[in-house]
Amino acid sequence: MADTTTGPGTGDKAPDFDLPAAGAENIRLSAFAGKPVVLFFYPKDDTSGCTVEAIDFTAALPEFGKLGVEVIGMSPDPVKKHDKFRQKHGLETVLVADEEKQALSAYGVWVEKSMYGRKYMGVERSTFLIGADGRIVRAWRKVKVPGHVAEVLAAAKELA
Questions:
Q1: Would you call 123 helix, strand, or coil by DSSP?
Q2: How many CB atoms are closer than 10 A to CB 81?
Q3: Does the predicted model carry a pTM greater than 0.90?
Q4: Which CATH superfamily is domain 34-159 in?
Q5: Nearest one of 144, 17, 30, 20 to 94, comparing CA atoms
Q6: Using CA atoms, how far apart are residues 68 and 3, in angstroms rounded to an integer?
Q7: How far apart (Å, rounded) are the C-alpha atoms in residues 67 and 94?
Q8: Domain segments of the chain as ranges
Q9: d(CA 90, CA 64)
Q10: Which of 50, 79, 109, 149 is catalytic?
Q11: Could you read off the pLDDT of 22-50 as tens digits, one per residue?
């Protein structure tokens, strides 16, 4: 299991993807050309940190909307799990399923992790602010959930 923490950084073109999302739709990043996008990667639906993060992004959607910024969440969970997660917590953010881990790998967030001495592959909680030109304006890696959405929103306001 190789560590793949390499991935795009500030100024790099954001890797495109075309993946299924909750609500039976497909989401393609390039479809948002001309609009800024917040793309947040999280490990697993319905776990404590991921739930708080998704609820925080949902609560901030009106603010992001005023700025013309789209918000997309992504994890390796299947669409059916995303649907249940959204319904259970009243989430309005778009949640994309990357079961094959292609986008997760392209962004360098599918990494080797360790817990209690056991090594495994998983998602490193990360967020990317992508400008209207499709380039990464800012990347947050190894995200800590408290206060994160406010920080991302502040960075998005600087784009406006």
A1: strand
A2: 18
A3: yes
A4: Glutaredoxin (3.40.30.10)
A5: 20
A6: 35
A7: 17
A8: 34-159
A9: 18
A10: 50
A11: 887 899 999 999 999 999 999 999 999 99
